Amino acid sequence: MPLIKILSKPSYKIGIWEFSNSEYDSNHCGIIYPNYHKEINQIKNEKRKWQIYGTKMLFNELCEEGDLVSKNKIPHIENSNKNISITHTNQIIAIIIADYPCGIDIESRNRDISRIKYKFLNKEDFTNGNDLEDLIQNWCMKEVLYKIKKDKTVLFNNHLIIKKKNNEFKGYCVHPEFSFSSKISIIDFKNFFLAFNLDYVINHD
Question: How far apart are CA 108 and CA 171, in angstroms?
């Protein structure tokens, strides 16, 4: 399970790993961070098991303090003031650990989501959805915003907005109960887009 890349800044750290099914070790998976997805033995999807194990292994490389746990299937770091977000696709896992509420998402550049763009595009977004790469980037960055708050009442096409200025992206969540904004970085990684937020600012009316 090669560690592909680590991005380390004063306020956040990101790790990216590639894994395969041959590396899954059920015994070790039960020992390392046992409170992260305790239900793993009941999971029948083998790929999901590999992802959970890979997440544990990557977290072990990135974090020197705290215990990785899951509550209602949402990851947390106990005994630490750090925040965490996790994403995976195919055989890639990425984790961000930050000093602020954070989100991370990875999407294939080849994914065609044009048929569902009405579900997440907002008229104030930087793209109208005609360019497929812009559309994927928009979706990827909105996933980041959603993961920051993890609130099921957030609607992608209504409450989340992605704006672009001077080739820099900023995301806004405008919800009846809360409002925040984040600068978002999106990078090309192999044949994927990887997006994550660089800060978290609560907006006060």
Answer: 20
Q: What is the distance between the terminal CA atoms of the chain, rounded to a whole angstrom?
A: 47
CB 80 within 8 A of CB 88: no
Nearest Cα residue to 184 out of 91, 201, 58, 176: 201
Write the CA distances from 191 to 75, 133, 194, integer angstroms. Answer: 26, 12, 10
**Alpha carbons 103 and 146: distance in angstroms, whole number:** 8
pLDDT, one tens digit per residue, over 144-154 is 999 999 999 99
Q: Distance between CA 100 and CA 10 in Å, rounded?
A: 12
Q: Please state the pTM of the whole predicted model.
A: 0.94
pLDDT at 99 over 80: yes
